[in-house]
Amino acid sequence: MTLVNLILVGVLIFLFVIMAFSLGIAATPHKNVILENTLPPDKLTAPETLALAKEYKKRLWLTAGLCTLLSPLILLPAYESVMMTLFWLLLLLPLAAFYGIEILYIRKMAALKAAMGWRLAVEPIMVDTQLTATKNRQLLSIGWLLPPLLATVALVIWLMVTDPDGSLIMSVTALCGWLLALGCWYSVKRLPVAAPTDDSEVNRRYNDLTKNGWSKVAVAIAYGIVALFAFPTLAMSLSGTPAKIVSFLFFLAVFGCIFWCIGFLLALRKKQDALLARTEDFRYAGEDRYWRFGVYINPNDRRLMVPDRIGLNISMNLGRPAGKIVMSLIGLLLVGAMAMTLLPTYMMDFTKEPFTGEIKNGEIRLSAPLSGSSEIPVSQLQKVELTEKLHGNVLRTNGYSGAYYQIGRFTVDGKQAVCYLDERSKPFLHLVTKERDYYFTFKDPAATRTFFEELRSVQIGENKK
Length: 465
Prior knowledge:
Helices cover 54% and strands 14% of the residues. The protein is built from 10 helices and 13 strands. The chain has helices at 3-24, 47-70, 80-116, 129-133, 146-162, 168-190, 200-236, 240-276, 321-350, 445-464, and strands spanning 33-34, 37-38, 305-307, 314-316, 356-360, 363-367, 373-377, 383-387, 394-401, 405-412, 415-422, 428-432, 437-440. α1 runs antiparallel to α2. It is elongated.
């Protein structure tokens, strides 16, 4: 059992709780909608409605509890590839189960609505031209996104200067994070006017509240992305206790941002409900038929992004070609993440000797599966030694860091390093150059010691020249 295993278990349990909580919100009425079905106001508190909502929430939390009991299974395998496979299964299968429960109870609520005859008259969509013309008056301006953009660019420049070889992935990811925030802001700006009631003033205040709140979330995402990359970047330049403090603050910042977003959106929803409670003149335009699977599917609606029905998010119209393309890309990214995680671990677990180290033509060549290689001129070696562990603060900048394998670029005690390690095979070979350190091990410790003696003899011969 390693710290990485325990962290993965914690991540799974956290996700199960978040899923049960967030999906359960659909069973709390918002704009006369409960479980994606619009009911007459007086039927939202009917015994049959409340019983079905309670049963739905109970089923979600029972599923979360069962999945939590199963999550420690990833502590058992001796092979990292099997452990990571279990992690993905324990992540994706419960997500499918949660989604299946949601769809089941959406249909149950629709069946209850039909059986009880709780029909609503479909009204034409109300167009308020004055509200449409000023729909973004409470939207935070795009200028709020400029400071985090400048901070992101400064961060990228710093990464390029301090680590020109290993900073490309982190730099591109940081810039994409800001573009994500910009996309969220633009989606909020493009959202059409919401007219849930016949009261124009209520509709205006509801629209202003929504636009202002969601634009704040978009801006918060931009600042959060900066923090997400700034803390690790700072930790890479430190060592010892300061680096550990920065790493701890990083984890606090991540979870703080998550809980802030959840709390802020719940508070926004509460304000929306309080505003809508002032009138009972709700308008129903027959939207239920487009939310049959918990997502919006309407090929006749030109909008790509629409507000979700529980007041906490923006959903995508999967009836539009662009919506299908975006969802397909998300699926491909998920498959790519799985492949990048699983393929190297299976190769390292089940290849006789996945790590290679050799000396040829005055260069030392180190490599590991799917991670590239390092060529180190023997003349640049300052020191060669064997060590039992990586000393000081260790932070991965890109590559793979798991329970047993550490592959890729790291900072070790404030210095750039490249690792090709199976942490179960000790001692580690430590090569020191002016620019960065290298840590390497074969699966067989005896082979590592033999390679060390070979390097020592080559280094001695180089020093005599």
